[in-house]
Structure formats: C-alpha cells, structure tokens
Write a structure and sequence with these properties.
With about 110 residues, the protein is mostly helical. It has five helices and no strands.
Amino acid sequence: MLGDFLRDSPVYQEVLEEGMEKGLEKGLEKGIEKGIEKGRQEGLRTQRRTLLEIIQERFPELAFLAKKQAEAINDPEVLSRLTVKISIVSTAREAEQYLLTSVSDNNRN
C-alpha cells in the first residue's frame, strides 16, 4: 500500500525518470565507445592485411617478419606510413629496415 502510494507520487516519478535518463545516456556512451573501438580494430585488421599482401607480392621472404611486426603495431598512422614506405622501396633490405623500425615508431606514439 505505502509502496504504491510512493510510486504514484510526483517526486518518485521525477526521480525515476531522471535515473532512467542517466542510465540511457550512460548506455549510449558505452555503446558509442564500443562501436568506435570496434571500428578502429577493424581498420587496423584491414591495414595489416593490405601491408601483408604488398609484402607477399614484393618481398615474400619477409612475410613472417612483416606479420610479426604488423601485429605489434596498434597505431593506424604508423601502419599506414609503413604500408606506403613498403610500397615504394626498391629492395628487400630497405623493406626489412622499415619493418624493423616500425615497432619503435609505434611505441613512441
């Protein structure tokens, strides 16, 4: 009885509505954050795949090293720069040097 009376009171309704709004806001924020992170991870996977395809076509002997290094890079900008550099180098030695220094570039960011 008393519970019904309290639930029907304007103050209770206002507090309930405010709590629901805050809960919805927090839920939306978490959902957006998760979506952004999921998109970021998918972008990294795509960039890694592109890098590995280029390596496989141009310098197959570096495929193992490239896979190892690409997995260690979590910065999309570093991965993108590395992909461009690997695309334009002339020799496997140059490509290897870029692969070996890319992780230290990633750690600086």
